[in-house]
C-alpha cells in the first residue's frame, strides 16, 4: 500500500502511518462517545493525542500502527454487537480481527479478553451462548492460513521467535540471579510506560487500574469492558516485568481502553472511588499540557538537533537510526557506476555485512532499488534476510559481488571463501554531525562460487 501511495518513494512510507493513526484517533473518539457520550469521546481523543507513543506510532511505519487501528476497530465493533446483537457488527469484527491477526500475534489475545469480559459482565453473559460470536472468532483465524502454511514449510520459525518472549532472562551465559534483575526490569518497563503515556497520564492509568480491580464489583458494564481490555493486561504485563525484559510497545493496544477509561472519568461520566472531582480539576490540565508537550517533541527534536549541529544525538534525536542512509546510497551508487571499479554493474549483486538496516536502507535508497543480500557471520536466523533466497539460490554463480561493510576494512575468510578473489574499492565516511559518524568499506569480490555458511552457533 505504501509503495502504491508513494510510487516507491519515502512519501508513501511516511504517509501510511499517518493514515493509520488518523483512523485510529477517529475510532477512539467513536468508542469513547459510544460508551460515555460526546464529552467522554472528546476527552478520550484528547488523551490519545497527548500520548507521546501515538506520535511515534504516526512517524514510523511499523506493524504497531495498523495493529492499533484494527484493535480499536475491533473494540468498537464488539461493543456495538453486545449492545445491538446486529450481525453486521460481527462481520466487521471478523474482518478487523482477521486483518489484525495478519498484522501481529497480539491480536490473538482479543477473543480471550472478549470471552472474559462477557463472563464478568452479568448483563452480557448470555452472549457467550451466541453461535455467531464463536463463528466470528473461528472465521477470523482463517486469515492466518497463508502464514501458517508458510511456517509449516519453514520449521515454524514464527513460533520459535514468539516463544523466546516468554523464556525470562535465561539467555545470557552468566545471567545474574533473577532477584538482582527485578529492579532494572520492573523499573525500565514502568519508566517506558510512563514515557509512552506521559508521567501524569501514566500514573493516573496505574492508579485507576488498581482502584478498578479493588472496586471491581461496583463497576458498571462499560467500565468492566475497558478494565478487561485495558487495565487487566497492563497489570499482567507489569507483573511479567518482574521476571523478564518487556518491550515498551507490547502493551500499546491495551493503552487504548485505558485512555478511553480515563477520558470517560475526566468527562464526568462516572466516579471511581478516591479519584474524586477534586482530582479531575487538579490533574486534567497538567496531564494534557505535559502530554502534548512530550508528544510534540519527537516532531520538533530532529529539526532542532539538525539546526544546532547535533543531528543523531544518542539521547535526544529520535531519528538517529534513520540518518545517513540516503548519503550512503548516493556514495555507493558512484562506486557502483564507476567502470574502473565495477565494469558490469547489472551483472554484479550487492551484499551488506552488518546490521540488517544497511541492507534494507540500501535496497530502498539506491536509484534502481535492487535486491540487496545480507551475510550473517553466525550460522543462525538473525533476520528476515536469512529466510530469503541467497545469491547462490538466485542464480548469481560466476558473477561478481559489490560488498559493503560497516567499520572494519577486513572481510572474514569464511566469507571470502565463497569467491575467487577480493579487493578493496574504497572507504565511505558518512558524517551527519559531531554526534553521528559512520564508516563503511566497499569491496569487489570476483567469480562467486557458493554462499558461505556462517560460524557455527556456540552452545553451552
Tell me what you see in this structure.
The protein folds into 2 domains: about 1-300, no CATH class; about 325-445. The protein has helices spanning about 1-5, 10-50, 50-60, 65-85, 85-105, 110-120, 130-140, 145-155, 155-165, 180-195, 200-215, 220-240, 250-265, 275-305, 325-335, 355-365, 415, and strands spanning about 350-355, 370-375, 400-405, 420-435, 435-445. The radius of gyration is 26 Å and the shape is elongated. Helix 2 (about 10-50) runs antiparallel to helix 3 (about 50-60), helix 2 (about 10-50) packs across helix 4 (about 65-85) and helix 3 (about 50-60) runs parallel beside helix 14. The longest helix has about 40 residues, at about 10-50. By secondary structure, it is of the alpha/beta class.
The gist of it:
By secondary structure, the protein is an alpha/beta fold.
What's the topology here?
Blueprint: H1 2-6, H2 10-49, H3 52-59, H4 64-84, H5 87-103, H6 109-120, H7 131-141, H8 145-153, H9 157-163, H10 178-197, H11 199-214, H12 221-240, H13 252-266, H14 277-307, H15 325-336, E1 348-353, H16 356-365, E2 372-375, E3 400-406, H17 413-416, E4 421-433, E5 436-446
Parallel strand pairs: 1-2, 1-3
Antiparallel strand pairs: 3-5, 4-5
Helix pairs in contact: 2-3, 2-4, 2-13, 3-14, 4-5, 4-13, 5-7, 6-12, 10-11, 11-12, 12-13, 15-16
Question: What attributes characterize this protein structure?
Answer:
alpha/beta, 9% strand, five-stranded mixed sheet, 460 residues
Amino acid at each position: 500500500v505504501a509503495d502504491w501511495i508513494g510510487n516507491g518513494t519515502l512519501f508513501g512510507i511516511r504517509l501510511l502511518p499517518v493514515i493509520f493513526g488518523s483512523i485510529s484517533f477517529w475510532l477512539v473518539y467513536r468508542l469513547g462517545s459510544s460508551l460515555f457520550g460526546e464529552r467522554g469521546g472528546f476527552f478520550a481523543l484528547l488523551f490519545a493525542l497527548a500520548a507521546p507513543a501515538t506520535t511515534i506510532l504516526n512517524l514510523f511505519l511499523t506493524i504497531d500502527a495498523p495493529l492499533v487501528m484494527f484493535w480499536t476497530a475491533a473494540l468498537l465493533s464488539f461493543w456495538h454487537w453486545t449492545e445491538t446483537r446486529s450481525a453486521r457488527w460481527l462481520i466487521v469484527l471478523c474482518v478487523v480481527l482477521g486483518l489484525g491477526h495478519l498484522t501481529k500475534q497480539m491480536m490473538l489475545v482479543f477473543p480471550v479478553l472478549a470471552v472474559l469480559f462477557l463472563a464478568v459482565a452479568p448483563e452480557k453473559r448470555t452472549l457467550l451462548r451466541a453461535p455467531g460470536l464463536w463463528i466470528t472468532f473461528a472465521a477470523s483465524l482463517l486469515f492466518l492460513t497463508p502464514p501458517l502454511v508458510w511456517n509449516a514449510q519453514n520449521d515454524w520459525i514464527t513460533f520459535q521467535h514468539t516463544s523466546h518472549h516468554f523464556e525470562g532472562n535465561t539467555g545470557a551465559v552468566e545471567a545474574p540471579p533473577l532477584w538482582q534483575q527485578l529492579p532494572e526490569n520492573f523499573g525500565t518497563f514502568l519508566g517506558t510506560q510512563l514515557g509512552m503515556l506521559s508521567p501524569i497520564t501514566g500514573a493516573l492509568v496505574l492508579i485507576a487500574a488498581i482502584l478498578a480491580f479493588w472496586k471491581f464489583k461496583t463497576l458498571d458494564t462499560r467500565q468492566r469492558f475497558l478494565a478487561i481490555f485495558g487495565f487487566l493486561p497492563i497489570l499482567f504485563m507489569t507483573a511479567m516485568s518482574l521476571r523478564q525484559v518487556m518491550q515498551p510497545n507490547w502493551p500499546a493496544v491495551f493503552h487504548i481502553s485505558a485512555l478511553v477509561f480515563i477520558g470517560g472519568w475526566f468527562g464526568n461520566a462516572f466516579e471511581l472511588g478516591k479519584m474524586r472531582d477534586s482530582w479531575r480539576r487538579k490533574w486534567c490540565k497538567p496531564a494534557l499540557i505535559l502530554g502534548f508537550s512530550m508528544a510534540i517533541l519527537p516532531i520538533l527534536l530532529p529539526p532542532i538537533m539538525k539546526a544546532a549541529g547535533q543531528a543523531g544525538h544518542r539521547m535526544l534525536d529520535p531519528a538517529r537510526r534513520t540518518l545517513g542512509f540516503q548519503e550512503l546510497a548516493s556514495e555507493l551508487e558512484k562506486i557502483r557506476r564507476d567502470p574502473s571499479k565495477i565494469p558490469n554493474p547489472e551483472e554484479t549483486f550487492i551484499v551488506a555485512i552488518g546490521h540488517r538496516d544497511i541492507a534494507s536502507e540500501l535496497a530502498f535508497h539506491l536509484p534502481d532499488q535492487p535486491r540487496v543480500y545480507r551475510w550473517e557471520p553466525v550460522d543462525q536466523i538473525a533476520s528476515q534476510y536469512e529466510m530469503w533466497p541467497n545469491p547462490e539460490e538466485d542464480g548469481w554463480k560466476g558473477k561478481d559481488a559489490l560488498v559493503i561493510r560497516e567499520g572494519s576494512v577486513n572481510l572474514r575468510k569464511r566469507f571470502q571463501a565463497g569467491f575467487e578473489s577480493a579487493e578493496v574499492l574504497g572507504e565511505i565516511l558518512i558524517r551527519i554531525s559531531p554526534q553521528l559518524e559512520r564508516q563503511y568499506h566497499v569491496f569487489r569480490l570476483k567469480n562467486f562460487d557458493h554462499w558461505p555458511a556462517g560460524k557455527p552457533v556456540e552452545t553451552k
